[in-house]
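Section handout, structural biology tutorial.
Before the tutorial, make sure you can parse a SMILES string by hand: atoms, branches in parentheses, ring closures as digits. In the record below the ligand is glutathione, and the chain has 192 residues. In the tutorial you will relate the predicted structure tokens back to the input. Do not try to memorize them.
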Amino acid sequence: MFLHEKGMTVPMVDLDMMSAENRDERYLKKNPSGQLPALELDDGRVIAESVAICELLEEHAPTPALIGSTPDERAETRMWVRRIEFGITENIVNGWRFAEGQAFWSTRGRTIPEAADGLKALARDKLQWLDGLMDGRSFIVGDRYTLADIVLFVGLDFGEMVGQPLDPGLSRLTAWRAGVASRASTVASLSA
Ligand SMILES: N[C@@H](CCC(=O)N[C@@H](CS)C(=O)NCC(=O)O)C(=O)O
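Predicted structure of the complex:
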């Protein structure tokens, strides 16, 4: 979604996550966390963590700004990205890893089954809190479409797949999500 918004293309290499191709020695040499995505630079260095990759892409292609075009704007976006990752998306993912995703995850990292329900509930609490703040806002950061929208949209899309759907009673977030889903960059990304 970030690349499509920027109109950028980068050469892509697909790895099969299900057969743990991203956990073999060859990939771990590039990215010791063993996770996708990773961006390999021309000099061989590897940048992992999707938010760090997006930050780098924005430095190379500042417009349209998806993080911000001033220090204040960038700080606002980063504040929301952190709130969304720490409060919502990471809890959705770990809630799944420790429950329905255990068979997939237990060979890759620790699982804490007793934490699953609580993590899912934490994500729901934060979504309710965020919904209450969305009155009059088109996007997470007011009227700017940013990386914060992309991170949340992708996390909710994953939640939808793993039995943690967005509560339709959260009407502002439901409307926000429909808007993001209809963006050309989202449509292009989902059909890639
Ligand atoms: N914090 C990382 C999370 C990356 C992540 O969870 N990647 C998933 C795919 S979306 C993955 O590689 N899963 C397979 C695995 O961990 O083996 C980021 O934002 O890039």
